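Two folds, back to back.
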Amino acid sequence: MFLRLRLITQQFICTGSRNSLRATMSTFTLPDSHPAVFISLTADLSQDQLLSFPAFKTWIATLQHSLSLQKQRSHPFNSSPYILKKIDIQAVDFFGGERLGFVKLKAEVSNDDGEKLPGSVLLRGGSVAMMLILQPDDTPLYSETDKHVILAIQPRIPAGLLSMPELPAGMLDDNGTFSGGAAKEISEETGLEVPASELINMTELALSPFEDNDTEEHLQQGVYPSPGGSDEFIPIFLWQKRIPRDQLKEWRGKLTGLRNQGEKITLMLARLEELWKVGGRDGKTLAAWALYEGLKRDGKVSAKD
């Protein structure tokens, strides 16, 4: 009877939910890891898929470099350095059925004193955000007068919201043009296209002076909105355009943030001086506003840029 119960228990573990041991049966050693780092996979993720996932490649390279800096005598962890020992992949999401989108993992990073660093990570990689500023062309050329910023209003289920005002986010396509759902909405509603040649990377301008040698940790040149749980980084670009005042007036009446029945994404115009209040719940918006004000104060961007 005892043997029968034991067999039933083992069968349940092997055939149970995706959170069971079956989901992490496949294990391999991270290539070129010294000491060896063991990685356990879920049943629906292969070794090749994980190792070719851009977000994982960037994250593991960044972490390994940061850990290597502990060899420096001046490093605060030099006397008892932390080591990456294993990575357990806990869940994955695929976009469109094939493209790997999100990876949830637990990394064990500890030292010989038995101390551990928090290692729960949601890998998703980077995106871009756009601070799109419109200004009437009858204002003085280098003034900040009557500037407006385009915001997107859309559902954000992770935040429990169906209506979130935020800086438009997306990707830069192969031609360097801003793309994605918000970019499409901007193009449809205003006819504006955002070419790469007219973009100013505000995060790069602000951060590059602090990344000049191999003794520093190598982070991406972007804002990290939630570094306690996610690798997500967001370079923030600036694009300014002067347009006829009548055009701006028309768009102000049209782009109010109010959505028609069933409409998922809509746009609104916020005055630049009120951006920190209107978009105050969105980290991208606050970061963009701070970068713009700081770079403007330092003379690295101007009202004309």
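---
second:
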Amino acid sequence: MERVGGVTQTEYLQQANDCLLTIVQIETRDALQNLEDIAKVPGIDVLFCGPFDLGNNIGHPILDGTMHDDLKDALARIQKAAKENQKASGIYATSGDQARQFADQGFQMISAATDAASLQTSLQSALTAARGSYVHSALNMAKGAIRGT
């Protein structure tokens, strides 16, 4: 049998489950109400939260980057339930600075940027490169004006 990554396919399948993480997302009012019971479920490794989704669902959306105190309390509850049940706690952050704040609060698994923010930044960078610099654009416009096109 072929070896991949230093192990055979059979060896991989025999040890794969030992390398998996089971992550549950706490992002609804119902999940928050059942948090302590969810945290006690054997086999769950991480309690993970998206503050935007949870905030919206509990009636306290994040507006202008500001979290309502009830949302902050909910995040603290998630972290506490994880810790009390020997689970890791995870959270989405919108920036590296916010990720550092969450790490300082004790979250262990942190997405340092949201998919929406990362996609927007990446696309803006690619489009800027594709269009060229403002200087390049101005030169092309000037060349067109000189040629009368």
